[in-house]
Amino acid sequence: MIVLPVYELTKPTANAISLAMALSSGWDPVWFEFIAFYGIPCGLMDTDILAAFRVTPQPGVPPEEAGAAVAAESSTGTWTTVWTDGLTSLDRYKGRCYHIEPVPGEENQFIAYVAYPLDLFEEGSVTNMFTSIVGNVFGFKALAALRLEDLRIPPAYTQTFQGPPHGIQVEREKLNKYGRPLLGCTIKPKLGLSAKNCGRAVYECLRGGLDFTKDDENVNSQPFMRWRDRFLFCAEAIYKAQAETGEIKGHYLNATAGTCEEMIKRAVFARELGVPIVMHDYLTGGFTANTSLAHYCRDNGPLLHIHRTMHAVIDRQKNHGMHFRVLAKALRLSGGDHIHAGTVVGKFEGDRE
Q1: Can you give the residue ranges of the Ribulose bisphosphate carboxylase large subunit C-terminal domain (predicted)?
Q2: Is 188 a catalytic residue?
Q3: Of the ranges 48-52, 290-294, 340-344, which one carries the lowest mean pLDDT score?
């Protein structure tokens, strides 16, 4: 059984480090600017966004220095003092590293806890939140590696987001199916089928008893199967299977496209065909596009399935990137009714233990 670590983000806050302490601990003078980003004299605020970073400092860099550098670069800090610092209240807006603890069993790895004032972030924008918290800081030269393990996002911020367009209860009402899991599958091969043959496979699966079928993540609008043709043949397959089984069926039509405008155009066409659900690749498509599609789905009725393609680029390395729990929380804010989770044991990373 795999047990994921749970990070209790409301840690006791450290005191601010004085310049004398910094000198005695061997801080490089180039990092003196970051001392002010360590410790919270007044304690945490209920409205702060709290982050747990797994920090691997470069050799010779104290963990407090690394944690303070993360807090600085992901909020108001830069590599030197600038005269425009005096035009605002930096103490109000700076992020602060408030607690550091070693990672058990790992050499030179630490969990640095950082608090961000809520005013640093635009309401309802995952894009803006991530631009600050995981933007430039991952390339910081004081760090050998950095991983965002968890976020605590306060209600004051989550309430600025729409969230999932509908949810499981609405999905069951649309399908008139209760008391059991919904069963579906992905059409294979993922690339190369014509639109007509894709529709044929959809019909056979739905007629055979499945509730849903779905496009694969990289099926968009290629020369062998343009999106409009695929949508038409899949809709025909859905209606034929429904007529023969007496059940409501569906197919996750992938609306992911090269532009937000084209993506919405495809979602509109799916709705006009009466297809109950569309799909989006939220990481490759981007959070702004995903939030736009989620808003359209809530306003106009389609369910929204999310594919996690590209996630392993971000979450697979255990010392660098982001934990998938953070990506899942971000999706919860951006909007999606459910997400492709992958098989428990199969061709991807993971084992039965």
Answers
A1: 167-353
A2: yes
A3: 340-344
